[in-house]
Amino acid sequence: MTDNEYQSSEIVLFTAKLVENDIAESVKIIEELPKQTSSQVLKALPAATKAKILKRLQVSYSASLLEQNEPELIQTILYSVEPRQAASIVMHLSPLAREQLKPYITGKLADEIRDILTYPEGSVGRYMSSNIIMLKEDIKAEKAIRQIRKLFAGNSTASSYVYVVNEEDVLAGVLNMRDLMLAEPDSLLKNIIKTDVFTIHCFTDREEAAREMSKRKYFAVPIVDSENHLLGTIKAENMLRGVKEDVTKDMQTMFGVGKDERVFSPIGFALKKRLLWLNVNLVTAFLAAGVVALFEDIIARLTILAVFLPVIAGQGGNAGAQSLAVVMRGLVMREIPQNKVTTLILKETKIGLLNGLVIGLITALIAYVLYGNGWFGLVIGLGMVINLIIAGLAGSSTPLIMKKMGIDPAQSSSIILTTVTDVMGFLAFLGLAVIFQDYLIQ
């Protein structure tokens, strides 16, 4: 064994013992060592010890240490820490390292990391950079200067800001370089940082974020999650670029046109993008028409029923869309835990019932005035109540079911919702008309 190998093994044994007795001191030692030596020490430590140390290291430094090891070792380490921390480390790896690691992260952990790192389209999370410098709040100014030099070395693209986080990577403040240089060497960072920091949530729409950044004239802003964990930063130039394009894409999506279609796109390309949704809508329209056809006899004898069919369809669609919008936002913002799904569906169904009672009463009165038959008012009123109950139930459950099946709820929920509300609304209204036809036809 060479002298260097002997020294490394001694450092590993010393660090392993120290971790068990004083985790904070062992982390300080690892951070003081040359990066190559720190990487070797981390590699030789047991998995449980690695996890304890990584929890204390700043994420960017952890990632830089892991990048010098084989994917198999990185895999072992990532499986030994919490999914959120694993996702944060993966996010700070270089694109090449992430690509090499991809085959080694599978199963439940891969799903959890993917869920954490998947940000809604158009949100700032999609455009942020994870190439940031962040330090722990409990280190001293003297050590912070050494770490900043080490982290900035050879990293010309890193953010000009240095952020300070607590032990759980929650953003504590931003470090002013002048304050750092003038501070006493043994001053803790938490006593010299600026704690009043403007942040943007990772799910914030890019247009909204651009407006906020424009007001404050910042050239970069930290991005955080719901628990204020620091995820990355976004530069104003990246934020403002493409906002105009996002607006046009949103307009095209609203009307069933492909986001990548342009004014002078080839006719074949445009047809390919548009025909699919037109055909899907055609099928759903025929389903609703089929229900109406089942009751053509009662409609022929009582033609005023046809007048109220669009009212039933319109109210059901609108009520369902309201529930759908609320649930879709909850899914996007990850505000719906698995144990609250049933509660949410019941809540939206109850809202549908209450809305149905109010709207049903108003509709019944209008029908009575127009037709002069109280029974017809009862039929249209009850039909509206049933329709809005179904709308609340379908609007809340459809996107949840789609997500459970692995289908993007944003693409399919609205079509399914419209079909359900139209079909069930017509069925309820016309079915009640058949039941009460002896009182309606005089």
Helical amount: 55-70%
Q: What overall geometry do the principal axes of the alpha carbons give? A: elongated
Strand percentage lies at: 5-15%
Query: What is the residue-averaged pLDDT?
Result: 78
Strand order of the largest sheet: 1-2-3
Q: Count the E strands.
A: 6
Radius of gyration: 30 Å
Task: Give the N-to-C terminal Cα separation.
Answer: 107 Å
Query: Which stretches of 5+ consecutive residues score pLDDT under 50?
Result: 247-258
Per DSSP, the total helix count is: 21
Largest sheet: 3 strands, mixed
List SSEs in N-to-C order: HHHHHHHHHEHEEHEHEEHHHHHHHHH
Structural class: mainly alpha
How would you summarize this macromolecular structure in one to three sentences?
With 442 residues, the protein is mainly α.
Which helices and strands, and how do they pair?
Layout: H1 3-21, H2 23-32, H3 35-44, H4 47-56, H5 59-66, H6 71-80, H7 83-92, H8 95-101, H9 107-117, E1 133-136, H10 141-152, E2 162-165, E3 171-175, H11 177-182, E4 200-201, H12 206-216, E5 220-224, E6 230-235, H13 236-240, H14 243-254, H15 267-294, H16 296-301, H17 304-332, H18 341-371, H19 374-404, H20 409-435, H21 437-440
Parallel strand pairs: 1-2, 4-5
Antiparallel strand pairs: 2-3, 5-6
Helix pairs in contact: 1-2, 1-3, 4-6, 5-7, 7-9, 15-20, 17-18, 17-19, 17-20, 18-19, 19-20
Question: Overview of this structure, please?
Answer:
By secondary structure, the chain is mainly α. The protein is built from 21 helices and six strands. The strands form two sheets. The protein has a three-stranded mixed sheet with strand order 1-2-3. The chain has a three-stranded mixed sheet with strand order 4-5-6. A hairpin with a 5-residue loop joins strand 5 and strand 6. The protein is elongated and about 100 Å long. The protein starts with a helix and ends with a helix.
